[in-house]
Fold these 2 entries.
Entry 1:
Amino acid sequence: MSHANAIPGLYARHAEAFDRIRGKNGFERPWLDRLVAPLPEHAHVLDIGCGSGEPIAADLIGRGFFVTGLDVSEPLIRLCRERFPGHDWHVGDMRDLSLGRTFEAIVAWHSFFHLTPEAQRTMFPRFASHAARGGVLMFTSGPSAGVAIGEFEGEPLYHASLDPAEYRFLLAESGFVVLQHVVEDPACGGATVWLAQKT
């Protein structure tokens, strides 16, 4: 099995450890502020790769938004359902995303980059089909094209990225305009962040 295909099992086996060590100090908050700035009150947000619901979904719920979360790990979705029972949680693979509805915002924070480059390319039409007109999309990537193998709980952890120019092309092709792109944002733990809006 490839490192990329091992991701679902990795997050299922180590859900408790992931929830325990996942940073919850809110360093992502400035980017979430930008994500929600154009949203109407009580907007619907799709959190792709929502993990245990903390801190991203928790922050959005605290602002009064309704969150639909998707994660490949059943144990992590179970935690979401326990913590935020008034919201909509799904076990599933983002590569098969097909919810049949649109959202005012979509976020894929530190999840999208676990897909292979080929799988990432196929996600942009899925983002577009789930984004309302004027809806915003935020995701994290690597700073440049390549594959990096990290480590989590003693197991290989796959990450991949396309070139920034290709992300811009794919976004434009799917009807998104880039609002902001910061490479290795020092104010956000070194995350490379994209924020785009559906035209």
Entry 2:
Amino acid sequence: MSLDVPERLLAKAEHGDVDEAEFIDCVRTSLPYAWDVIANVVDDLKNGIAASTGSTQFADNTTPPPDETSRGQLLRVLASDAMRGALERHFGVRLAFQNCHRVAAFPPSEADSDTYRKFTSPRGQLLNQSPELRDC
């Protein structure tokens, strides 16, 4: 199961739309490792602790998860359109993802940049492979 959904929130969802802030809180509390990784990458971006390629700035996480539970959290949050979209709106960024741990945050204005396209391209994916990541 991806999320630990409180009964109150589930009942609300069964009867109609759910407030995005409540959904975000459910993601934050259910997937704390994933939340922290993304929040830290966004903080790095907003504080200027970012990689810079030409005029494009982005921040990324290159530290592998400490265990399979953490890896699973990151995979689930980024594989879900609903969760990923809500996090992008909440943090005001465009997220990009490679492997089991490499998460990058781009300003929304850079989603069409060469750097973003390179990061999310098949070539970028292939160049970010290594034997130690084969099992991730």
